[in-house]
Write a structure and sequence with these properties.
16 strands, alpha+beta, single chain, 12 helices, Class II aldolase/adducin family protein, L-fuculose-1-phosphate Aldolase
């Protein structure tokens, strides 16, 4: 168990999610195990004992966006309601816990929030999440909180402008120091998609690793597929995109096996896109500025599709929602290789290889990032 706690801690650091030295993970089975910052460990142990849950993560994000959201919120606001699809489906809302001098009252407020929700924003601490059965559950919840609060913050900032002293400087520093150009050419993809199943899986695994490494998706989100003959190879539901080697399902198009039971919930959308476009590979990520800018898309002039400049944007929910209809229609109508789903993420396609699909994903995110900061400059003189 101790090794597992250390591994998840390192993931939070490697994925540039949390500050080194400001992370604590606690878990319990027959006893409580703990790893990380001692002050945070103490709080995590208290929460586990109060909730009788399996795991708790207490960590300060690498970037201060959750804190900025809390400080921007009206004093009486108890929770934030992000509009991105991951939050709507799993988090619902995000409780805000403001600091109080009495440690007992402070702990009580945190535990009251966590009894109803998977995580919360806590003043002077960061994000706290819990899992009822595994450490992985608290890790996924913490990642979801970070994703949701980042998107919520940048959406609010573009809508209302800076409201706090030094807020403008924080964003300028983040843009200049953290947001680097994407390098997709360094990944050794094959020039054409293979036919052999094991080589297909290797190419999909590389695509997943590259997508996570470039920050175009968090490791537990997004999905990938590739078609060969009459089989659709697709990542499993809740698969880690950077550890896909044993988490890919071969799903026959004729429905002759039950392999699709464990496949990604986006399987209907992937299958519909392939049938409509004839593409061979699909990559779906949740790049943050693409999601943020999707809320500001405007109706196009020549087709019944909203756009961010030239990039099509559609509506629809994942799983059994409307994406299996809206995505194929947008790809066919526009002829583009990338489509943004409002509040959700980006789907890219390729007829040749995953290198092209990854490059398209990076191009869309870079354009949305550039557009975002251009609008911020235009509206609020950043």
């Amino acid at each position: 168990m101790q090794t597992q706690l250390e591994r998840y801690t390192q993931r939070l650091i490697d994925e540039q999610c949390a500050k080194p030295g400001k992370i604590a993970i606690c878990s319990q089975n027959d006893r409580i195990c703990r790893f990380g910052n001692q002050d945070f460990v103490k709080l995590g142990q208290q929460i586990i004992q109060e909730l009788d849950c399996a795991s708790v993560i207490v960590a300060e994000p690498l970037h201060p966006f959750p804190f900025l959201l809390l400080f921007r919120a009206p004093p009486g606001l108890a929770a934030l309601v992000p509009r991105d699809s991951e939050s709507r489906s799993s988090l619902h809302d995000i409780p805000l816990i403001r600091h109080c001098q009495n440690p007992t009252d402070f702990l009580s407020k945190i535990c009251t929030a966590l009894r109803k929700r998977k995580g919360c924003i806590v003043e002077n601490i960061g994000l706290i999440s819990h899992g009822s059965l595994t450490v992985e559950q608290s890790y996924i919840a913490w990642s979801s909180l970070l994703h949701a609060t980042t998107i919520k913050y940048f959406e609010d900032l573009l809508t209302t402008g800076p409201q706090l002293s030094e807020e403008k400087q924080v964003i300028i520093q983040y843009r200049n120091s953290y947001l680097k150009p994407f390098d997709t050419a360094s990944f050794p993809f094959l020039p054409r998609l293979p036919d052999h199943s094991q080589t297909i899986i290797s190419e999909m695994s590389l695509a997943g690793q590259a997508t996570v490494q470039l920050g175009l998706v968090d490791s537990f989100f997004g999905n990938i597929s590739c078609v060969s003959a009459n089989t659709l190879y697709i990542s499993e539901t809740s698969a880690r995109l950077d550890e896909l080697q044993c988490q890919i399902d071969p799903v026959p198009f004729d429905g002759s096996s039950t392999a699709g039971i464990t496949a990604s919930s986006e399987l209907p959308a992937h299958r519909a896109i392939i049938c409509a476009t004839g593409c061979k590979a699909i990559l779906h990520g949740h790049p943050r500025f693409s999601v943020v800018m999707s809320f500001f898309a405007v109706p196009g002039t020549s087709e019944d599709v909203c756009r961010i400049d030239s990039i099509p944007v559609v509506d629809g929910e994942g799983g059994v929602g409307g994406l299996a209809e809206s995505l194929p229609r947008a790809f066919n109508l526009t002829g583009d290789k990338a489509v943004i789903v409002r509040g959700h993420g980006v789907f890219t396609i390729s007829n040749t290889d995953f290198g092209e699909a990854l490059a398209e994903l990076a191009i869309v995110e870079q354009h949305c990032r550039d557009t975002y900061f251009a609008l911020l400059q235009e509206r609020y003189h950043f």
